[in-house]
Structures are given as structure tokens and as C-alpha cells.
Design brief:
Length: 308
Amino acid sequence: MAGDLEGFNFEQRHGKDRVRVARVWRTPDGRNSMVEWEVSISLFSDCVDAYTRDDNSGIVATDTMKNTVYVKAKECSEQLSMEQFAILLAKHFTSYYKEVTAAVVKIVEKPWERVYVDGQPHEHGFKLGSEKHTTEVTVKKSGVVKLTSGIAGLSVLKTTKSGFEGFIRDKYTALPETQERMLATEVTASWRYSYDTLSSIPRDHLYFQERYMDVKKVLLNTFFGPPKEGVYSASVQSTLYQMARAVLARFPDISAVQLKMPNIHFLPVNISTKDNPSMVKFNDDVYLPTDEPHGSIQASLSRFWSRM
Ligand SMILES: O=c1[nH]c(=O)c2[nH]c(=O)[nH]c2[nH]1
């Protein structure tokens, strides 16, 4: 809520961050499903008097917000995507409280995956995976919605079919041109769905969970290319663009994609001494893995009428 306050601009919101909840669903035949979510809530409401007049009558206590996460999780007797849960929570806050004009709910899912034992999916066993599913939902009292989903920490690497040539060369440039290098990155992706009202959101409880899996597959397949021949990458920029374009081409209900792809360097190892000038001579075989510094490459791609 932005507004004029004693001649200043004033903006405020309040919420509860990092509310952790796990939910288990059990089917009669013995199959258990579970999720672990970290939920962050932010409410926009007219409670300026709390800041200026010690009047808290417009405040939904953040403790109440935390409790609501558990109550709503309890009420969800059927498994649902975290996007649907975020929408349900945000809808609750904007419809239940006359003071609340808009709610933002973010969720990060801990990547518990069903384990396979002797090639069989385990009924109630899970192990921690790596990349995380994220979502951010904004719901206004009017029913207008902004829905984004994403992936964080998707680490990928290929050992060939990557190069970097033709960049600016000047007196500060040392990097040789190459058609042969490792390409490693940790993808952070977010994409915006085109649904902009509560009533237009698909009702299927797991629709956005399936979308998440499908988007991840498209991103990975585009990064790696076919299993035998792969695909050549002329730069992180080029690969990033191909990945973003593939997502928009494949999913009509996604209107914008943002990708962050740091270039995580694997440096060629060459070691020489006076006595032994080629103790280790790099031949596309021994690398020094690094975390920092790393290249920082990001872009967003959206349909003409849309933005992230
Ligand atoms: O794919 C790359 N993009 C760059 O912008 C860049 N800059 C650099 O030093 N190496 C690379 N690689």
C-alpha cells in the first residue's frame, strides 16, 4: 500500500516468512505422498495507523498467518500442487479479511523424491533431491492474479559441445577463443502463467505440478540436446535463449520466462617448472573446478503483450 503520509510517500506491508510445513497424504492401498513447503506470506492492508497512531486494529497478526498455513494444510485432504496451495492461501487472506487488499504468497518446496528399491517405487520412502520448485502468487481482492513458478539450483554440466569465439579482443583480453570447453551452470528459472483471474486458473489439483516437471524437462533437453550427438553451444547466452524460447514455444499458457545462468568455470590445468616445463599439459582432460568468480548471465523472454 503506497500513500501520502505527512507529506512523505509511505509504503508498507507485513507478513510471515519461512513458515515450514510438511503434509502427508495416505491412500487406502498404502501409498503415501508427502511434501515439505516453506511458505512466506505478505499482506497489503490498510494499517497505517499501526505505524503512526499505535492503533493495531487493522493488523492481521503474523502469528495468525502462520496458524492459517497449518489449518489450510489440514483442510487439503487431497494432494495439490504448491501453486494451488499458494492461491488458496492468498485467496483466503483477501476474502476473509475486509482490511486486506492483496496477498503475496511464496513457497519453496524441499525436493523430497520417492525412493526406488530394487527398481520399485517405495510406498512411503523418500530421499532428498537437488533442485527446488518455487512459486509466487499475488491475489488482489478483485480476483486479479499474478502467478509465477520456477526452479532454483538446477546444476547442469556438459563436458564438450561448447565453445566461445568472436568476442571483443583488446589489450585486457587474455581468454583464448575455443570450440572445446566444459559448460557448467546452476539454472534459476521462473516463468509467468497467463492466467490473470482466479476464475481462469485450471482446477486440476496437480496441473501446475505436472507443468513444473514438463518445463524442467524442456529446459534440460534443450541444454543437453539429443543423448548421442548433443547440441553445440556457442555461448551461455545462446543456450539460455534456446532454453527460454523452447519453453514459450511448447507451453501456450506461459507468457514470460526469466533465466539466470551463471557461467561456472572449469579452468584448464597447466603446470610447469623450470625443470619440467610440461608437468601437466592441458589436453581437454584435467580441469580446476571453481565457484568464483563466475560469469553472470540472465535474460527474460516474454510474449509481446506480456511481462515477467
Ligand atoms: O558463454 C560465455 N559467455 C560470456 O559472456 C563469456 N565471457 C567469458 O569470459 N566467457 C564467456 N562464455
